[in-house]
Design goal:
With 459 residues, the chain is α+β, with helices and mostly antiparallel strands. The protein contains 19 helices and 12 strands.
C-alpha cells in the first residue's frame, strides 16, 4: 500500500449521470452498506429522492476521510455542501477486531493479500464493533433548504458511496479510521503476537516435569572470573583528539561563468517540489493518470515563467523557434496555473453538457437583474460580448480568465472552480466600479428589459 493511502483523506472524481439501473452498489460490501443506511433511515420518501438525485450527475467529486464523507451538490438554483459523519473506532476496538480476525486464518490471509473477504463481517460481529452504519452512529449535515432529515442530497451521497465500495471496499475501514495500509500492518502485528505467544506456550515445561525434575542450580562463578573485565571498565576514558580546523571557503568568482546569477539549485528544488505535488495529487485520487514529463516547449515555458533572471527569458525568446509573443503569453499562463493553464491557452476542447449547464447557472446567478451580458460559447471558450473578457474551462474543472490585448487573448488572473469568481479580478482591473454579489458589471450599464432578454437568449 502506498504512503498516500495510509495518510487519511482520499478524493474520487464525480460520477456521470446514469439512466435507470439500480441506485445501490452491486458488490457484497456495497449492498451491506446500502442496506444498513436504509435501516438507519427507513423513511422511503428521502431514500427515493436520494436514489433519483444520485443518478442525475449533479454530485461533485467525493472526499472520503476518517469519520466523514463529503461532496458538493449542484442544484438548478443552488449549490450546497453535504457531509455524512460516522463514529471513528478507537484503538482498543481495532485491536479487538484484529484479534478476532487472527482467529480466522482464511480471512486473515485474504486481508494480507489485499482483499476484504465477506466472512470478515463475522469477525466484526464477534468483536462487537460497528463497521456498517448503526442507529445513532450515522448522521448527515447539508446546508440546503430541505426540510427532510436526512435530505435527498445526504441519501444520494450515501448511495454513491456504495458505488465506490463496488471498486474499493477498503473505504469502509477508512471511514472508521484505518487506511488500508495501516490496517494490514496492524493485522500483521496481531498475527506476530499470536505466533510468539504460541511459541512461548510450547517452550514452557509441563506440570509433571516441574514436580519430578527440579530445576538445575546455576553454578556460582569464581570471584576472579570477571576481574579483567571490571579492570577494563574502571580505566578512565581517553579524551578524543581535537578536531582539525575547517578549511577556508572557496572564493566564488565575481561574475558567474554563465553570465546568469540565479542559483540553478533553487530552480531544480522548486521543480522537484512541483513534480512531487502532482504525483501526490494523483496518488490521492485526483486524476486518472500520473502527470506526463514536460516536453521541450512546456519546459521552455516553465523556465521563462519561473526563472528570476530576465536574461534567461530573453535567451529563451530568441532560441525557442516560435514568435516571442507566443512565449510571453505561454509564460503568463504558466504563472497563473502551471501546466494546466498552458493547456487551456493552447488546446481548446468541448466539455460535457453537465459542466456547461453548471457554468450557465453560476454565471446567471452572479449577475444582478437586467445586467447579464451576451455570452458566446464556443467549446470551452465563454466570451463576454463587448467586454474583451473571456473564460476558458480547463480539463481540471477550473475556470481561467482571459483579456483581449492586441487581438490576442492573454491570461488575466488565477483560475477558480467558480466561473463568476474567476472573472472578478479581470473586471476589477478593467475599471468597473459597480459590483454585484460575486461579479462586476460596467460602471454605466445600458441594458434594458429588451437587451436583458436578448442576453438571456444568446446565453
Amino acid at each position: 500500500m502506498s504512503e498516500a493511502q495510509r495518510s487519511g483523506a482520499r478524493g474520487f472524481p464525480a460520477f456521470a449521470a446514469r439512466r435507470g439501473g439500480r441506485a445501490r452498489g452491486q458488490s457484497f460490501w456495497a449492498a451491506q452498506w446500502a442496506g444498513a443506511v436504509e435501516d438507519v433511515w427507513p423513511e422511503e420518501g428521502p431514500l427515493k429522492k436520494g436514489r433519483s438525485f444520485a443518478r442525475t450527475g449533479r454530485i461533485g467529486p467525493i472526499t472520503v476521510s476518517p469519520g466523514r464523507v463529503a461532496a458538493e451538490m449542484y442544484g438548478v438554483e443552488e449549490t450546497c455542501t453535504t457531509r455524512l459523519t460516522l463514529t471513528v473506532l478507537d484503538d482498543d476496538a481495532w485491536d479487538l477486531l484484529w484479534e478476532k480476525t487472527a482467529d480466522r486464518p482464511a480471512e486473515a490471509e485474504a486481508l494480507l493479500a489485499g482483499d476484504l473477504p465477506e466472512d470478515l463481517l463475522e469477525a466484526v460481529e464477534d468483536a462487537r464493533v460497528n463497521m456498517l452504519p448503526g442507529y445513532g452512529d450515522l448522521d448527515a449535515d447539508c446546508d440546503c433548504d430541505g426540510l427532510d432529515h436526512p435530505c435527498a442530497h445526504a441519501t444520494a451521497l450515501a448511495y454513491q458511496l456504495s458505488w465506490l465500495l463496488d471498486t474499493d471496499p477498503w473505504l469502509l475501514l477508512l471511514i472508521r479510521g484505518r487506511a488500508a495500509g495501516q490496517a494490514v500492518e496492524e493485522l500483521k502485528s496481531a498475527l506476530l503476537l499470536r505466533a510468539l505467544a504460541g511459541d512461548e506456550e510450547e517452550n514452557e515445561p509441563g506440570e509433571t516435569e516441574t514436580e519430578t525434575e527440579p530445576a538445575a542450580t546455576a553454578p556460582t562463578p569464581d570471584p576472579g572470573t570477571y576481574a579483567a573485565q571490571r579492570a577494563a571498565y574502571a580505566r578512565p576514558a581517553t579524551p578524543l583528539p581535537a578536531l582539525p580546523p575547517l578549511p577556508e571557503p572557496f572564493a566564488a568568482p565575481e561574475e558567474p561563468l554563465t553570465g546568469i546569477e540565479a542559483d540553478p539549485l533553487d530552480r531544480l528544488a522548486a521543480d522537484a517540489a512541483l513534480r512531487a505535488r502532482e504525483l501526490l495529487a494523483y496518488a490521492q485520487g485526483f486524476g486518472t493518470a500520473p502527470p506526463e514529463p514536460l516536453d521541450v516547449w512546456q519546459d521552455t515555458v516553465r523556465l521563462a515563467a519561473t526563472h528570476p533572471d530576465p536574461r534567461v527569458a530573453e535567451r529563451l525568446r530568441t532560441g525557442c523557434g516560435r514568435p516571442g509573443e507566443d512565449l510571453d503569453r505561454a509564460a503568463a499562463a504558466w504563472r497563473t496555473g502551471g501546466r494546466a493553464a498552458l493547456d487551456v491557452l493552447e488546446h481548446p476542447w468541448t466539455p460535457p453538457e453537465q459542466q456547461t449547464a453548471r457554468a450557465r447557472t453560476a454565471l446567471a446567478t452572479a449577475w444582478e437583474a437586467d445586467e447579464l451580458p451576451p455570452v458566446t460559447v464556443d467549446g470551452n471558450h465563454w466570451t463576454l460580448t463587448g467586454r474583451d473578457l473571456q473564460l476558458r474551462l480547463g480539463r481540471d474543472g477550473r475556470w481561467y480568465p482571459f483579456r483581449r490585448r492586441d487581438d490576442l487573448w492573454w491570461p488575466a488572473g488565477p483560475p477558480s472552480t467558480d466561473p463568476a469568481e474567476a472573472l472578478a479580478e479581470p473586471c476589477a482591473l478593467s475599471g468597473s466600479t459597480h459590483m454585484s454579489a460575486t461579479f462586476c458589471v460596467p460602471a454605466s450599464p445600458t441594458s434594458s428589459s429588451t437587451s436583458a432578454k436578448t442576453s438571456a437568449e444568446s446565453f
